[in-house]
Amino acid sequence: xxxxxxxxxxxxxxxxSKVARERPVTxxxxxxAVSLHxxxxxxxxxxxxxxxxxxxxxxxxxLINYRLRDVMESGDSLASNELTLLRQExxxxxxxxxxxxxxxxxxxYGMTLLSPLVRRLGFEVFQAPPTLIYRLIAxxxxxxxxxxxxxxxxxRNKRGLVVYWMPREKLIDLYGGRETESKY
Length: 184
Fold this sequence. Notes:
six-stranded mixed β-sheet; disordered C terminus
């Protein structure tokens, strides 16, 4: 997409961030923001931890695409850049959780079109249900991918939208105590 599309999408993303009450990840790579909210959805049983019930506090990480774009345009490949940046974000979140600098949460949660990436980061991945809301979220993420990521038009995701989870304890185990590295 053109620079015009990014010019339109960037203010929209900033507005969404304010409405969702997202906060930057302190000590991270600068490309992530988190929001803490109660989970609203069906019961989720994670293979390596707790059962997530409706009302449980969850921490959701969002990429700040207009900041990520600058890094992506630096010439490195998308996967290696994004993987490194996300590891830094999750390491910062784990340190904040260990120090008690985050409100209590049961799990980290998100949705993405990049399922191989979140699996490599240690998340449990579920295919999103084929409902209208998830289709709209997938379409929105595809628009953002095309607008912000270098070569975005060439890389069409055929796997679809996934929902990913990681219990708080696993986040701390995998990423805690490390500045930029993880066990993954």
